[in-house]
Design a protein that fits this description.
Layout (H helix, E strand, L loop, with lengths): L7 E12 L2 E12 L3 E5 L6 H9 L6 E6 L2 E2 L10 E4 L11 H6 L11 H14 L15 H13 L5 E5 L7 H18 L2 E6 L2 H7 L2 E6 L2 E6 L1 H6 L4 H6 L4 E11 L2 E6 L4 E5 L12 E6 L5 E4 L8 E12 L3 E8 L3 E8 L14 E6 L5 E3 L2
Helix pairs in contact: 3-4
Length: 372
């Protein structure tokens, strides 16, 4: 094992997984840095769960190589891998107590500890997830959040190299999900091991991850930090999947330095910087300019709007989001344009009700040009 491999707990080398003629994963190569919190994010059927199952050893690759802590895992069964998994369903044994559930995996370690040591380690894990004193209860006597913590304690008690999380918060309500996100981050910092999360919830991935891989059709489209994914998406798919974007498709007319001049189907020319994360655009090819809703201003139709691009429209929807108000404005050239403004900003958000005539606008530098 060389020095560079020691910096990564997970590595895929040209991995393919086929089910019959269908390639669920199609040539993945990536590395996950040791001690990081990494997420795989994508819509249903993109290959993220298959990827997780190959890390766990529940599936073997059709082609390519999977390495954990620098060691090849081809042919190594799940129970011999230095990983544990937390499932969406928790998978707790209903007839066992909380402590017995946590200690269950300790019985199958190669160096099996004695009963007293099993209990001590289980109680230690229970304390780690802040459930001291709950050891004698049965799973049905716990809330959903408490059951999730028990599942985490059971996964961590064996001190795995990698903890795999398969949409573990999907069954919880929104408030409890937020609490568990904070709990997962705290645990990851305390234990210092590599966490890998699979989810279709972008907010969940953005709030917890050091790095995120966006998957589509069995491929990784972009891997970056949450900030980079949001601010510099590599393609239209990423811009559309992460957060909300106003997407203006068209044909590239010319390249002016670092700006891409794109003509829309409506005949309007837009010019924005090219995203630094994606492949460069070329003249005459199809492209897209993405503008985030918070980059767009809204004002009364009668008042001038000091922006480079300015469009007239009517408010179709006004959505209160707490700290923000979202307007969906129907414009003549582009259809719906989404705008988000602070509720307590300089603008009077209550001025624009449904049907109100308005102007919306943005500066060219606020957009990013990218491939489709």
């Amino acid at each position: 094992m060389n020095d560079s491999s020691q910096a990564f707990d997970i590595e895929f080398r040209h991995v393919v997984k086929r089910y019959g003629a269908v390639a669920a994963v199609n040539g993945l190569s990536f590395k996950v840095r040791r001690g990081s919190f990494h997420s795989f994010l994508g819509s249903s059927g993109c290959g993220k769960t298959t990827t997780l199952r190959m890390i766990a050893g529940f599936e073997q690759p059709s082609e390519g190589e999977v390495l954990l802590a620098g060691q090849p895992m081809v042919g190594v069964p799940a129970y011999q891998r230095p990983v544990n998994m937390v499932f969406q369903s928790y998978a707790l044994f209903p007839h066992l107590s909380v402590l017995e559930n946590i200690a269950y995996g300790l019985r199958y370690r190669s160096s099996r500890p004695g009963r007293a040591e099993q209990r001590r380690l289980a109680e230690q894990a229970l304390e780690m997830v802040r459930l001291s004193g709950f050891g004698e209860r049965k799973p049905h006597e716990l809330s959903g959040g408490q059951q999730q913590r028990v599942a985490l304690a059971r996964a961590l008690v064996n001190q795995p190299t990698v903890l795999l999380l398969d949409e573990p918060l999907a069954a919880l309500d929104r408030k409890l999900r937020k609490e568990m996100q904070s709990e997962l981050l705290r645990l990851q910092r305390e234990v210092g091991i590599t966490f890998v999360l699979v989810t279709h919830d972008q907010e969940e991935a953005l709030s917890m991850s050091d790095s995120i891989s966006i998957m589509q059709d069995g491929l990784i489209i972009q891997t970056a930090s949450p900030e980079q994914l949001y601010e510099t998406p590599a393609s239209r798919y990423v811009a559309d999947f992460i957060g909300e974007s106003n997407l203006f498709d068209g044909t590239v007319r010319r390249i002016e330095g670092d700006r891409v001049v794109l003509q829309t189907a409506q005949g309007l020319e837009l010019a924005s910087p090219s995203t630094p994360s994606g492949p460069p655009l070329k003249a005459s090819e199809a492209g897209c300019i993405a503008v985030r809703p918070e980059q767009i201003s809204i004002g009364a139709e009668s008042a001038p709007l000091a922006r480079e691009i300015c469009l007239r429209g009517r408010v179709e929807d006004r959505i209160y989001l707490g700290n923000l108000t979202e307007y969906r404005v129907r414009t003549e050239p582009f259809g719906i344009v989404c705008v988000r403004v602070p509720c307590h900003g300089a603008q009077d958000s209550s001025a624009f009700e449904h049907g109100a005539p308005v102007r919306v606008g943005w500066d060219q530098a606020s957009g990013l040009a990218m491939t489709l």
